[in-house]
Amino acid sequence: MNTRALFTPATNAMTLVRNEVERMFDNVFSYGNSTRTFPSLNMIEGENTIYVEAELPGVSMNDLDVTVQDGMLTLSGRRDVATPEGASTLRRERGVLEFERSIALPTNVEMEGTNAVLRNGILTLELPKSVNARARQVPVTEG
Amino acid sequence: MNTNMTTYTDCCGAGQEVASMNHDHATKRPQYYRAPVDVHENDELFTIVADMPGSTAEGIEISVEDNTLEVRGKVYNRYQDLGRILHQEYGIGDFHRRFRIGDGIDASQITATCKDGILTVRLPKTESVQARTIEVRAE
Questions:
Q1: Between vectors from CA A97 to CA B89 and to CA B31, what angle results, nearest 5°?
Q2: CA-based nearest residue to B58, from B77, B39, B72, B41
Q3: Which residues in A lie closer than 8 A to residue B102 (C-beta atoms)?
Q4: How far are the Cα atoms of A81, A120, A131 from residue B82, in angstroms, in the given order?
Q5: Which DSSP string corresponds to chain B?
Q6: A89 and B40: CB-CB below 8 Å?
Q7: Of A52, A88, A107, B134, whose CB is crowded by the most CB atoms within 10 A?
Q8: pLDDT, tens digit, for every residue of A80-123?
Q9: How far is the alpha carbon of B31 from chain A, nearest alpha carbon, in Å?
Q10: Does the structural domain A40-133 have CATH classification 3.50.50.60?
Q11: How far is CA A9 from the centre of its chain?
């Protein structure tokens, strides 16, 4: 049985959201929504640690796999972007149901001491550099 | 309708000035990021779902004024003193988004929740609007 409302005279009176106000600032950036670029990654090199951060809104730890192999870090998983039951979707900008992304690490890392925290939709990985990869001061003596 | 309805408090109105993370192109211009949204509708309400990773309920401010719904999410710079940036695909800055809403929305009943970096705003339709929707059923 088709119960979809075919005639909704109230539509014009409540043009929520369909007409989004023009963006307010010139330097507003939009997000890439393709699977190729999800999640977005940042990488920072500390003295003894490589920090990798990923934007993963709506992803729970149970739905996320993090692996390090052959100098590559790979993040894969899924998130729920489905239309709620009984609703119709007027606008869809949030992409990606399933994702997989890899990035080369700049140095070897120790798996021991690796730390992963997923909080407020941000994954933060702390990857300790392997001992050989750490900068070492070479003592120079007069001779 | 001049309802200034702040669902979440503890956040200043203006966006924080965020210097670029890229030291080669350091800039002092304020930067805002456009949160991607999905919008759903059913008989009773509209639902806006926004990706705002890094935002928490305490840092999100929602206001309704002159038929405009405004969402701001504060994101704090968490990279200070960590080290050298090797690779950057996103910047650290506040989220901002505005929507026009019609009189069919009951602004006093708007609610919002934030979880895992996702903001969900529920905008109930007024009863009169709900009553005016005529359902046509196929026989």
A1: 30
A2: B72
A3: 12-16
A4: 33, 20, 19
A5: ------SS-S--SSPPP---S-GGG---S--EE---EEEEE-SSEEEEEEE-TT--GGGEEEEEETTEEEEEE------TTT-EEEEESS---EEEEEEE--TTB-GGG-EEEEETTEEEEEEEBPHHHHHHPBP----
A6: yes
A7: A52
A8: 888 888 999 999 999 778 999 999 999 999 988 899 999 999 99
A9: 6
A10: no
A11: 41
Q: Which two tokens stand for residue A134?
A: 């750490």
Q: What is the DSSP letter of A7?
A: B
Read off the DSSP letter of residue A24: S
Topology adopted by domain B23-132: Immunoglobulin-like (2.60.40)
What ipTM was reported for this prediction?
0.70
pLDDT tens-digit readout, A12-66 = 334 444 434 333 332 333 334 444 588 999 999 999 999 999 999 999 999 999 9
Q: What distance in Å separates the CA atoms of residue A8 and residue B129, rounded to the nearest whole number?
A: 9
Q: Within an 8 Å CB–CB cutoff, is residue A95 touching chain B? A: yes
